[in-house]
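Sat 14:20. Reprocessing the chain from the morning session after the first attempt stalled halfway. Input below, unchanged.
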Amino acid sequence: MGDEPIFDNSISSLAENIKKDYDNVVTNRGSSIEGQDIKFPDNLGSESHSEFIRFEIYKQHKFDRTEDAEDETLRVIYLPIPNSLSTNYGVSYSQDLGTIGYGVAKGVDYMSAKMNDVSASDAVYSIGGGVLNLLAQGITSGGAVAGTIASGLASLVGKSSALSFIGGGAVGEAGKGAMLSAGIARNPHMAQIFENVNFRTHNFSYKLTPKNVKESEILRDLIKYFKVAMHPNYFLANHFFDYPLQFDIDVMHGNGNKKNDFMFNIGPSVLTSMSANYTPDGPHFHDLNGRKAPLSVEISLSFTELKIVTQQEILDYNY
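Finished this time. Tokens:
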């Protein structure tokens, strides 16, 4: 045997197979639903149904609607505008110490450390001296209330604890009682701290009733396409998932498929929840030459956008 690594060929072969498998997945992504546009009802876009929703299913997983993806469209589904069509906006804040609160806390830490060097005999106030009197004295004389309380509580709960109680630390029972009796409370200097922007979600609910065999078949197919686009595929011997397909959703009007600029825009989205009720009015079916098609189907679709909304998206793209 020579000194050549025995795994080189195996690793190289594995890497090559992985690349081939992934390239094949990307090439064939969404091929099962690629085809002509479909619409329900069949006369959608006519004068009697001039407003509608356009659901474009894309092959690639893009996070920016400004990217040109027209050549990546697999299929377009047109449905009426539902009775309820709304958008939502949300941002997250957390409640925490503000700038002043942090400054106070730091100052108290320093003062507490210094007071640890002070002997017990320096704590001249005791419970017999009357903590409430000290509180009153500090308030009425315009003196530093915090300093008065801290000094008065030094002999009750410990010098550093007293200061911690003023600056934001735990309040001892004696301290709570003193403040309650005096009718005052510590100002925690809280602030709302901005954290992030919530992803928008958009929901579409329909009750679709086909009028003929053609519309029954269209309804069957469009439900299948939504389900397929929502879910991933296996690859690499079922060890990985390929990303599901994504949607571009627009509110349209007229035969020329114009976007309605009085409405809102929806960014690139993924279908995150879907339900289909095939018997909303009971188990009633059309007889289509021996096949049984539901009289109507209720479907609910919930989409989540792939990028957050900022001021720029609102101003430039009417999010």
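Confidence is low (pLDDT under 50) at residues 118-132, 134-146, 155-170.
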